[in-house]
Design a protein that fits this description.
Number of strands: 13
Number of helices: 7
CATH architecture of the largest domain: 3-Layer(aba) Sandwich
Distance between the termini: 58 Å
Radius of gyration: 23 Å
CATH topology of the largest domain: Rossmann fold
Order of helices and strands: EEHEEEEHEHEEEHEHHEHE
CATH class of the largest domain: Alpha Beta
Strand content: 15-25%
């Protein structure tokens, strides 16, 4: 118990700490937090990175402990993607793949399997310098488009429409976004303008929204049939994944009598993930 002072609220009197007690509590909690983070900084449990094969302690990123592979710099979403690629993805022979904001290790994975792989972004560091919301590319030219934590930065309606347009019938859009499964609706407020406001609401000043579970509706509205691959145990503990994180795989419908679907028989919903059709 503590010696508080009586304060008044609409519901009647309540106890609250005085300024001196508040300062002491803030100092105590800060010190405990620093001690806790320091203890976690070098990791407590050895993990296995499916991207590079490293087994050992993972490092923290800011307030998040044990998520960064010190061997290849992979984060949880990268390791989840690698597991999906290895386990569930099937490509047609000679597939064309376009990857926005690509991680370096992905190229070798696709090229080893005979795919024609290209990277893209709005800067000069990638194969193609293009805007995902207005691509200067022909219709139906790719079998897969990958967008790993990109849609939250852009006009996602325009980006999804463009991804659908450039995919061949049966092609796949592979999408990950930061999301809160417990939210019915995406938090998106165009009135937020300052860096401080954007960081407070979305966690990053370059983000335009924080997705809720209605991200599925946005993907389906663009025309895709949706499958999901979910981070579950024992993969979460073994590979340091975020519990429940999802890869959304949108399939463009295949035309009757047209080209064989890009991943026929290969898009599995991982049992625990939702699937259309």
């Amino acid at each position: 118990m503590y010696e508080g002072v009586v304060g008044m609220t609409d519901g009647g009197p309540r106890f609250r700490r005085d300024p001196g007690e508040i300062a002491a509590i803030m100092d105590l909690r800060a010190r405990r937090s620093i001690d806790h983070v320091t203890a976690l900084a070098w990791g407590r449990t050895a993990r296995l990175c499916p991207v590079c094969g490293y087994r050992g302690m993972f490092s923290p990123v800011k307030h998040k402990p044990e998520i960064w592979c010190p061997s290849c710099d992979s984060r949880p979403r990268h390791r989840l993607l690698k597991l999906w690629l290895d386990r569930d993805m099937v490509l047609p022979e000679g597939a064309r793949v376009l990857h926005f904001a690509a991680e370096p290790w992905v190229r070798g994975w696709f090229e080893d399997r005979g795919a024609e792989y290209e990277t893209a972004d709005i800067n000069d560091l990638f194969d193609l310098k293009i805007d995902i919301t207005a691509m200067d590319l022909p219709d139906a030219g790719y079998d897969m488009v990958m967008s790993n934590h990109v849609l939250e930065h852009v006009d996602d309606k325009a980006a999804l429409a463009e991804m659908f347009r450039i995919l061949r019938p049966g092609g796949q859009a592979v999408i990950t976004v930061p999301m809160i499964e417990g939210w019915d609706r995406t938090h998106e407020d165009p009135s937020l303008k300052t860096e401080a406001e954007l960081r407070l609401h979305y966690g990053d000043p370059s983000h335009l929204r924080f997705y809720g579970r209605d991200v599925r509706d946005r993907i389906r509205t663009a025309g895709f049939a949706l499958h999901e691959y979910v981070a579950l145990e024992p993969d979460v503990s073994t590979h340091a994944l975020h519990r429940g994180e999802r890869i959304f795989v949108g399939r463009k419908p295949a035309m009757e009598g047209g080209r064989k679907p890009a991943a026929e028989g290969g898009l599995k919903p991982a049992g625990e993930g939702a699937t259309d059709g």
